[in-house]
Design goal:
Length: 552
């Protein structure tokens, strides 16, 4: 057990060195996403494809939860207990919203956005979370500042973390956390070392700032370390499949890891092609002079409207170069296809040269889902585990759900974080496929609003608005409005001592009411008795255009 500041820093640095291969791999992936130009040479063209950046942006946008929700697993529960879990789910959802709201205007954006962005870049998630009387603390950390250690079953048993603070911020940190005060003076940036480990069924934590022991080893009656860190999208190696420590660089993979080498090859190929195009567009020159004295310099020959003077027998002649071989373009297409297999297809970004069949669109959608699947599972796993452990700690320390008491529920609740990732065009494609398989297939307008128009907060209210607008366009409704306005105008005319105009308006209203609501059965019966043909609709005399559509 470390008791000195040097013990803490030494142990954290040991863990940091173990994960050095991961840092090197992440830096390589991040250089791809940053579009670092490593092809640049003096006086030479270079091309860096933007696929890693656009792919990262697309993945970040698609992975942002649109309709997230925490759901308590009620399988095996009694019916009464299953109905009592709603307050727990509501509390978890509220804490998630508050965590994002507190950080939405920070340097890194909302909590979940930072979690997803770091996961896409590094291939790891790293979250610190504990419950307090004022709600949950939820912070997304940079995985490269956290160094875990696992037992032979893959369970977290030790975590080190190091980051830097200014001397003023370090002083404030001591006061905010209630750590041991420091009487000396710091200058410049100071390293902060944190160490957590499991021992005797307890979680221990200690901290050092520089050479100052800020927090001695302190035990907590928790079942696990409150840091949730783990790899996503990597290979299943733990050192037994590959020699050395390289497995720590491959157990978690960035979203661009599968195209790292092919992207470099593609960038070199594009740079080479652009250089060839420049060379072909600018021919070489052969100069004939007497006495070995050149008239033209390379700088002068590229000037526009340049004029050169030669003696008889001297001259300048362009030497054309052969065109680039077509195999270059074919090879570029091959590399481009491999990049699209490892990241998103160009069709996902709307780059469609011609018509796209439904089958092709379904394949594009399936490819995007396959790329995003491990990251979706990572978000679900970490947030579900955080909610499960925090609720368990709240029950252990008899905390309420905000201002409400904790309901009586079975022990060991399991909470899942559910959300769906919608791929552009996927929903419409599935509906089309369903209609092909079953022509009678229908889907509710409520579901359509939720999927296609998430900005509509209430489907019921929107449906009411549609019904109201339909009613206002109905000819009967319009006729009733006209009838009402005629009678109001008649009353207004009489109030203005224009009895004659008022009577005319009243008669017009009576005639219109008779035309709209007169019974038809008696008229049809009389015509049948007299042998007259029964009309298929109302009598034509006196029918106004606005009532014809209603009465037919």
């Amino acid at each position: 057990m470390p008791y000195l500041a040097t013990d803490i820093s030494r142990e954290v640095i040991r863990l940091q060195n173990l994960w050095a291969p991961r840092k090197r791999a992440v830096q390589k992936w991040y250089d791809l996403i940053r579009l670092t130009d490593d092809q640049k040479k003096p006086d030479m063209e270079s091309v860096i494809g933007n696929d890693p950046r656009t792919g990262y942006n697309m993945a970040s946008w698609l992975l942002q939860p649109k309709t997230p929700t925490f759901v308590v697993d009620t399988e095996g529960m009694a019916e009464q207990d299953a109905l009592s879990v709603a307050p727990v789910s509501d509390y978890c959802n509220r804490q998630y919203v508050m965590a994002n709201r507190r950080t939405r205007s920070s340097l890194y954006g909302s909590f979940v956005k930072r979690l997803i962005d770091l996961m896409l870049v590094t291939g790891w998630y790293d979250v610190f979370s504990v419950p307090t009387s004022n709600g949950w603390v939820m912070e997304a950390w940079n995985p490269l500042s956290t160094y875990p250690e696992y037992d032979n079953q893959g369970q977290l048993v030790r975590v080190g973390r190091v980051y830097q603070l200014t001397s003023k911020a370090a002083k404030n940190k001591l006061a905010e956390q209630g750590w041991l005060d420091y009487n000396g003076n710091w200058s410049g940036n100071i390293n902060v070392y944190n160490l957590w480990w499991m021992e005797d069924g307890l979680v221990w934590h200690c901290a050092a700032i520089g050479n100052h022991l800020a927090k001695p080893p302190t035990p907590y009656d928790w079942k696990r370390i409150p840091i949730y860190t783990g790899p996503v999208a990597g290979l299943p190696d733990d050192g037994g499949l590959s020699a050395g420590t390289d497995w720590r660089a491959e157990i978690g993979n960035s979203v661009v890891a599968s195209i790292a080498d092919i992207q470099k090859n593609y960038d070199r190929m594009m740079s080479y092609m652009q250089q060839i195009i420049r060379d072909v567009a600018n021919p070489a020159y052969q100069e004939q002079v007497r006495g070995g004295v050149s008239v033209v310099t390379p700088e002068e020959i590229t000037k526009r409207s340049a004029v050169f003077t030669y003696e008889p027998g001297e001259g300048l002649q362009a030497i054309l170069k052969p065109s680039p071989p077509p195999e270059l373009r074919t090879h570029e297409f091959d590399l481009r296809a491999q990049i699209q297999r490892g990241l998103f297809s160009d069709i996902s970004f709307g780059n469609v040269a011609g018509g796209v069949s439904g089958f092709l669109m379904s394949q594009v959608t399936a490819s995007a889902q396959q790329i995003l699947h491990p990251f979706i599972q990572g978000v679900k796993s970490v947030l579900g585990e955080i909610a499960t452990i925090n609720i368990e700690l709240m029950r252990q320390y008899e905390m309420g759900l905000g201002k409400n008491p904790f309901p009586k529920l079975p022990d060991n609740l399991s909470i899942n974080f559910d959300y769906e990732v919608s791929i552009p065009g996927d929903f419409i494609q599935r509906i089309t496929s369903a209609r092909v398989a079953n022509p009678n297939f229908v889907i509710s307008s409520t579901t359509l609003n939720q999927v296609l128009f998430p900005e509509i907060k209430s489907s019921v209210l929107e449906h009411g608005r549609v019904v109201s607008e339909d009613a206002s366009r109905n000819p009967i409704f319009q006729g009733v409005l006209v009838l009402s306005e005629l009678r109001k105008a008649a009353l207004a005319a009489r109030d203005n001592n224009d009895q004659q105009f008022g009577d005319l308006l009243e008669k017009a209203a009576e005639l219109m009411e008779a035309q709209m609501f007169q019974p038809q059965q008696a008229t049809q019966l009389n015509q049948s008795v007299q042998g007259a043909p029964v009309p298929s609709g109302p009598p034509e005399s006196g029918i106004r255009p606005f009532t014809e559509g209603v009465l037919q």
